[in-house]
């Protein structure tokens, strides 16, 4: 099993590197997905290293940042639906909204402390394997800093219409996809307590996390 130091470093890599691709507003719809990740990586690492409040774990500031900067660049509905699994289709619109809200808070509070560990990290991209007509791709990167490099990959989809462009819907850290990890956890709750039970469990976990960090 990984020790606490390694887990903390992985958490830092996950949330920091995810933020690299999520924190800036979308640019041209025809921007290549790997170019998007690289540009945002360079821009946002600089911003994060200069934000003392985020590095200190100011959760309110992080939540505000997520709402204003991250969500426009993520297909969070698709991410939540994939994590919930087949039960998503049977959920009411109100339940789906609650699931998205609680899942977002869970992710933010789970990885808020990771910002304190951002120091000299850099991001390098691996060659993109895709064709011009592809609408879904995987952009593979490495987070380099102290210690061994950390693999972090992004699944992106090209969305049509208003706000068209590449959006992230999953992340992979060291071979483990974020959505699939939560899907197995959520499936147990849904099988035992249904969708409302999962919502209640997420809400209680979020309250507990908030209490520990208050």
Explain this structure.
The chain is of the alpha+beta class and about 210 residues long. It has a single domain, classed as Nuclear Transport Factor 2, Chain: A (Roll), CATH 3.10.450.710. The protein contains eight helices and five strands, in the order αααααααβββββα. The protein has a five-stranded antiparallel β-sheet with strand order 1-2-3-4-5. It is globular. The protein starts with a helix and ends with a helix.
Mean pLDDT: 80
Helix content class: 55-70%
Our Rg estimate from Cα atoms comes to: 17 Å
Compressed to H and E, one letter per element, the order equals: HHHHHHHEEEEEH
Residues in β-strands, percent: 15-25%
Q: How is the main sheet built? A: 5 strands, antiparallel
Total tally of structural domains? 1
Quick structural overview:
This protein has a single domain, classed as Roll (Nuclear Transport Factor 2, Chain: A), CATH 3.10.450.710. It is 56% helix and 16% strand.
Please describe the topology of this protein:
Blueprint: H1 4-22, H2 33-49, H3 52-55, H4 59-70, H5 76-84, H6 87-90, H7 93-111, E1 122-125, E2 136-144, E3 150-159, E4 165-173, E5 176-177, H8 178-213
Antiparallel strand pairs: 1-2, 2-3, 3-4, 4-5
Helix pairs in contact: 1-2, 5-7, 5-8, 7-8
Quickly list its features:
214 residues, alpha+beta, Nuclear Transport Factor 2, Chain: A, five-stranded antiparallel beta sheet, 8 helices, 5 strands, 56% helix, globular
């Amino acid at each position: 099993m990984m020790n606490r130091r390694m887990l903390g470093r992985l958490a830092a890599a996950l949330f920091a590197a995810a933020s690299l691709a999520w924190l800036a507003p979308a640019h041209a719809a025809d921007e290549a997905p790997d170019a998007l990740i690289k540009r945002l990586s360079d821009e946002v690492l600089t911003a994060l290293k200069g934000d003392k409040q985020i590095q200190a774990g100011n959760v309110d500031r992080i939540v505000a940042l997520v709402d204003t900067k991250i969500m426009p660049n993520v297909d969070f509905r698709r991410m939540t639906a994939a994590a919930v699994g087949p039960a998503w289709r049977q959920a009411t619109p109100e339940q789906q909204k609650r699931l998205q809200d609680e899942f977002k808070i869970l992710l933010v509070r789970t990885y808020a402390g990771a910002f304190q560990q951002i120091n000299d990290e850099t991001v390098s991209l691996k060659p993109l394997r895709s064709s011009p007509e592809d609408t879904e791709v995987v952009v593979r990167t490495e987070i380099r800093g102290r210690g061994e490099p950390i693999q972090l990959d992004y699944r992106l989809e090209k969305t049509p219409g208003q706000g068209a462009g590449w959006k992230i819907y999953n992340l992979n850290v060291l071979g483990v996809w974020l959505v699939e990890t939560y899907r197995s956890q959520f499936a147990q709750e849904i099988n035992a307590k249904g969708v409302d039970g999962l919502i209640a469990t997420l809400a209680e976990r979020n309250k507990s996390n908030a209490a520990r960090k208050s």
